[in-house]
Amino acid sequence: MNHKASDTQAHVAIAYHSGFGHTRVLAEAVAAGARDRAATVELIAVDGMTDADWLILDEADAIVFGSATYMGNVSAEFQRFAEKTGRRCMNGTWRDKVAAGFTNSGAKSGDKVQSLVSLAVFAAQHHMHWVNLGLGAGWNSSNSSEHDLNRLGFWLGAGAATDVDADPDRVHSADKATCRHLGQRVAEVTRQLIAGRVATAAA
Fold first, then answer.
1. Alpha-carbon gap, residue 136 to 85, rounded angstroms
2. The pairing of beta strand 129-130 with beta strand 158-161
3. Backbone dihedral angles phi then psi of residue 97, each to the nearest 5 degrees
4. What is the phi/psi pair of residue 137, to 5°?
5. What contacts 142, CB < 8 A, 6 or more positions away?
6. Residues 150, 136: contact at Cβ < 8 Å?
7. Is 60 within 8 Å of 12 (Cβ atoms)?
8. 193-197 long-range CB contacts below 8 Å, 24 or more apart?
9. What local confidence, expressed as pLDDT, does residue 2 receive?
10. Cα separation, 14 vs 64, whole angstroms
């Protein structure tokens, strides 16, 4: 997007796949965090992409990718979406946008780091700027709690764990708060990048 010197508001898109609703709840938390920092936010479920959705992604300043972790990696539906971006990758359509990621699985570990790595590599292939979670590990001492931010101890992005038989409204409050933090961080970093570009162009 083109920005005027007086306009550093970030436009953040959240592109996610949610098989059972848990990852959608996390996507909404990321969106709330970005809005906390005055970003314009749009959520896109990648298993139902329209031409308008593709345009939103192309025009966004930042894209946060989210997928449930199935069998140690992103979902087949998210991978199908990723493979449809080949022409954009070749053309550099998303080059220098900000990127970040989040994932959810039933197990506390669930090999979620593999999904986050897949999302980060996907962003790197598009020459995007990856933003990490920016939190230390929670729930790792006798004085800590499962209600800490980053309770599962991920750094590359946000990782959540939800019981496989739980309804979406039972996604852990700490995981939602961690994803909200990620949204805030992405919006802040994106705003800083926009301001730097505007200043550089004016110099």
1. 33
2. unpaired
3. -75, 160
4. -75, 135
5. none
6. yes
7. yes
8. 193/61, 193/98, 193/129, 194/3, 194/8, 194/9, 194/10, 194/61, 195/8, 197/3
9. 65
10. 5
pLDDT band at 6 (very low <50, low <70, confident <90, very high): low
Tens digit of pLDDT for each residue in 69-122? 999 999 999 999 999 999 999 999 999 999 999 999 999 998 999 999 999 999
The strand pair at 40-45 and 73-74 is best described as unpaired
Neighbours of 143 (CB within 10 A): 5
Angle at 178 between CA 14 and CA 146, to 5 degrees: 145
* 37 contacts: CB under 8 Å, gap ≥ 6: 10, 183, 184, 187, 188, 191
Q: At what angle do helices 173-202 and 22-36 cross, to 10 degrees?
A: 40
CA gap 158, 131 in Å, rounded: 11
Strands 73-74, 62-70: pairing kind: antiparallel
